């Protein structure tokens, strides 16, 4: 679920970075994303609480809170994550029984945490401006 919210949040920020001010209503953003305006408002609230966007009620909608070149994908990732919950959780019921059951959770947590750290490091190297500059060159899948 966090991956989907993350992708939609990036989409929102790309629209805010590329479209003229005053057009970023939840309806307009929802149309581009292909979802309901309520979903956009919920995610926009998270982005606003993280200090990534500013929201104005009524005409005008939302805008970036700082330049697109200063907003990394890691910033967006952190805004969309639920604090304290790992990206890759360990299955319930492990940690008891035989040697594998007792040892697997710690081994998996070590590998999963390293993967998440690598993901965050990669996301920190990409800004909304980087993606915005490439948006016209991308071929639809």
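^ Assign residues to that structure.
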């Amino acid at each position: 679920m966090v991956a989907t919210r993350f992708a939609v949040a990036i989409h929102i920020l790309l629209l805010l970075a590329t479209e003229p001010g005053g057009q970023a209503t939840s309806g307009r953003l929802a149309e581009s994303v292909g979802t309901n305006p309520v979903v956009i408002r919920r995610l926009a609230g998270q982005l606003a609480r993280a200090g990534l966007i500013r929201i104005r009620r009524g005409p005008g909608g939302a805008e970036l809170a700082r330049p697109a070149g200063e907003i990394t994908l890691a910033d967006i990732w952190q805004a969309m994550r639920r604090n304290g919950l790992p990206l890759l959780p360990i299955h319930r019921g492990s940690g008891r029984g035989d040697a594998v059951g007792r040892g697997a959770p710690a081994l998996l947590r070590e590998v999963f945490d390293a993967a998440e750290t690598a993901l965050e490091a990669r996301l920190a190297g990409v800004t909304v401006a980087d993606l915005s500059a490439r948006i016209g060159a991308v071929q639809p899948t």
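The mean pLDDT is 88.
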